[in-house]
Amino acid sequence: MAVGGRLGHPGFRPDGGPQYPGVVDLFESIADRRIREARAAGLFDDLPGAGKPLPDLDRERASGWWAARVVALERDKARHEDLTVRMGSETARLWRLETEAELLDRVEALNRLLAEYNRTTSFVDHRLLEPEAMVHSWRSSQRSAR
Predict the structure, then answer these.
(1) Structurally, how many domains does the chain consist of?
(2) Do residues 18 and 12 lie in contact, with contact meaning Cβ atoms separated by under 8 Å?
(3) Domain of 106?
(4) For the whole prediction, is pTM greater than 0.70?
(5) What's the gap between Cα 116 and its chain centre?
(6) Do residue 36 and residue 87 come from a single domain?
(7) Share of the chain above pLDDT 70, in %
């Protein structure tokens, strides 16, 4: 055994035991207490899927399936962040357009982008822009700019 405990990690004695016995028990008892209180308060009542088996438990999976799921989730997160930044800059540009026709064309293009994102990812659905509301806001910004 390495000096300082398990693989030299602080917090463990050289014999491998925890340096501060009872700390782990303290955290477990806090967790157990919080779960018990949540159950008593009914926070676990009527959860979706309650009383049903976990989906896909009996399904055969290829090795590394979980890694593929994590990679897909991270890819979806990155796409969401990219889209959020892009929508912010694109929306700011809308107010500088010269005509309503340009505005409606750009809103339609942005809605196609949002719909494609919503179709191809499961991370977060982005609401489509409402053309009428955008025109109303654009008109107001045009009046106040004069």
Answers:
(1) 2
(2) yes
(3) 82-145
(4) no
(5) 18
(6) no
(7) 80
